[in-house]
Give the backbone structure.
Amino acid sequence: MKELFRIIDANINRASEGIRVLEDIARFYYNNASLTEKLKRLRHEIRKNIMEYLPQCISERNALDDVGLPVSGSLNVDGRNDLFEVIAANFKRCQEALRVIEENLKLLGKYQLSKLYERLRFECYTLEKEYISADWALEKRKKLDTDIYCITAEEYSRGRTNIEVVAQMIEAGIKIIQYREKDKKLIDKYRECVQIREMTQKAGVTFIVNDHVDLAMMIRADGVHIGQDDLPVEKVRELVGERMIIGVSTHSPEQAQKAVAGGADYIGVGPIYRTFTKKDVCQPVGLEYLEYVVQNIDIPFVAIGGIKEHNVLEVKRAGAKCIAMVTEIVGADDIKAKIESIRRRLTW
């Protein structure tokens, strides 16, 4: 039965190494102190509780003659394409190793110790969920990190289709585009969104669908934007899952706080100025509400409503990092030139 200690030794190392990879990503890539602490505690628990049997484990260790090493080298099954795959692989590495430790301790008659490692395995499952949620939250924040948020409005696009307008927005380097069309037939919206999703995905542009949660899900958009009279944020989250961005239009501090509490990923702040783009818009909230959001809301936000090239700098100076424009861009003779001009003004 002494060979069982060799199995336990190998899997203590596997589990600890996997956790260390995850711990360093949480610490140095995500700057997430809470996850770093939890992973560090788990790693120490894994090693601490086997210390009584460490001499037997070390005695049975034989890394040079491990038949698994050449097998691993020949299979080429452990390639990684992105950070998410590294995270997923190392959680599975740890969980599987803990299960192996647990089963072999039972064979050695160490039942209570095996149950302790069972608890650590379940703790690892819980940590995986928390870790992946943190990864998705960071991913969503990165997708929202830009200067100009463009919104379609074919009615004001000088005879151009939404497809033509979106193509020019992408060419100009826009990184977020929202599809907003209130009066079209749903089948026409669907067809346009399918095309725009292909265009934005190819260009690495974040694509948000206004109002229609079902449509956003069907075309696998990056996100959906809802208003105050739409479905509650919490219910939308149940439908779309954790990975999809949810934006919420807000017009007051109370609405902003409610959106944050409900789990919104970003909020729209406005209308800053009087706007005629939307037919059912409320009165302007002015820069005062924007300044409240800057000081009190810790999720991304987009300033919107009546913002033009001549007043965009005023909005930026009030604290807005991301600014939405509709008619100022879709109604321009040369969309690319207009976006370049706005960006020059934003650097003043």
In short: The chain has 15 helices and eight strands. The mean pLDDT is 95. The CA atoms of residues 269 and 303 lie 5 Å apart.
